[in-house]
Design a protein that fits this description.
homodimer, 209 residues, alpha/beta, seven-stranded mixed β-sheet, two-stranded antiparallel ribbon, 9 strands, 44% helix, DNA-binding
Chain lengths: 209, 209
DNA sequence: GATTATATGTGATATATTTCACAACAGGAA
DNA sequence: TTCCTGTTGTGAAATATATCACATATAATC
């Protein structure tokens, strides 16, 4: 029996957080916890937590709460799908390098397998722990390494071009740091992280006080 | 009298995007446009655009559409509040430096005035175009420079401590790159950018195909 | 074993956000 | 001027998301 309704994006985001918090708790020797405890850590309500767990069909015990190990395993079962997730990063500028070095030193399950750029000074070297190739090798490396996710850290003007090549190469998910919306065909999921935009939003809402 | 209901966060996010797109259009000599044209660029619907503009009380003409200059000015009036927005960044690691260099070369209205770290090798130098101070000078520099927004790019373990100091120093908005939810008193706005989390979400939704 | 106190799981409800559908309108054409 | 076309502005409906409220369950205690 599978899930009939797809799990909402908001729920998935919280699930990722729960998983991280739970792994941390487990490492501290916590074996069991209540919805209101997880809620306090995740900074939301116990009802929200229970609703979310209901979404993935996880059950706890009214008096003992939830088993941490079992819950981690259930959440992971949802988040870590069937396929291996192998990532390519395009654009080895400041931000690209920062992300590379963030992910090279241990990040279980998420591996940036290759980086790409057009700058000859960066190509064919190991930068921030990741092998960097020229864009001319993009398609062949994607296929060879079974890469299915992409990170775009190129300037805005080139982002769509890179996205198009990613899509053509069969990549199914793109994380876009360039401050432009990308046009992709259905079946490809795009998420955007826009630092300048976040700061503007911040400025707006901070203004209130 | 202006807005009775606060403008929703989602609308503000789109507004930031509209503004950027419009400024770009203006520089290309476009003087007027229809809601469906802006929608195409922003990757949403004409109704959504009109609703958003209604939110800020902007009016267009049924047959001529919206005046680009006037619209930019109206959106800016909403987004750029009354106070100057001056930003401090704490944590001059890879990500911190990437953000600093991203913002030093031209970003109108958003200035990172100072960076802070505890590493003696970074302190009292100009890094990626921004002056870096020791954390011991944090409170005095915040006051002196009238800083009201903060960016946290320290490891998770130190994020709450930094946030507490920011709040105590009077900062009203925090952009948090550390993968932990921050606890702050009401009146302080926090936004989180969690790259690992975004990748996990990406992996989940890309899995579908 | 019965009682009790405290959590869970969830239908119902409330709120937030988006989309629909269409009346009102403005400019160009005849 | 009057008609026609294509767009705006927005009430109403639909959808998505979060919260409430409570019946149900279970471990600990007596």
């Amino acid at each position: 029996m599978k899930k009939t309704t797809p799990i909402p994006a908001r729920t998935i985001e919280r699930m990722v957080l729960y998983k991280r918090l739970l792994i941390d708790l487990k490492s501290k020797g916590v074996h069991t916890l209540f919805s209101h405890q997880l809620a306090a850590l995740a900074h939301n309500t116990s009802t929200q937590v229970r609703r979310d767990l209901m979404e993935i069909g996880h059950s706890g015990s009214p008096r003992k709460g939830y088993d941490v190990t079992e819950l981690i395993s259930n959440i992971s079962g949802i988040l870590d799908g069937s396929k291996e997730r192998i990532i390519a990063l395009v654009g080895v500028g400041n931000l690209g390098r920062a992300i590379l070095s963030y992910f090279t030193y241990s990040h279980p399950g998420l591996t940036i397998a290759a980086a790409f750029d057009t700058d000859e000074n960066k190509v064919d070297r190991v930068i921030s722990g990741c092998r960097c190739f020229h864009m001319s090798q993009f398609e062949s490396k994607i296929a060879e390494m079974h890469i299915n996710l992409g990170i775009i850290t190129v300037p805005a003007a080139q982002a769509q071009f890179v996205a198009d090549r990613m899509v053509a190469a069969g990549i199914k998910g793109i994380l876009n740091f360039a401050p432009v919306p990308l046009k992709v065909p259905g079946g490809v999921f795009v998420d955007r992280i826009d630092i300048a935009s976040s700061l503007e939003k911040l400025a707006y809402f901070a203004e209130l006080s």
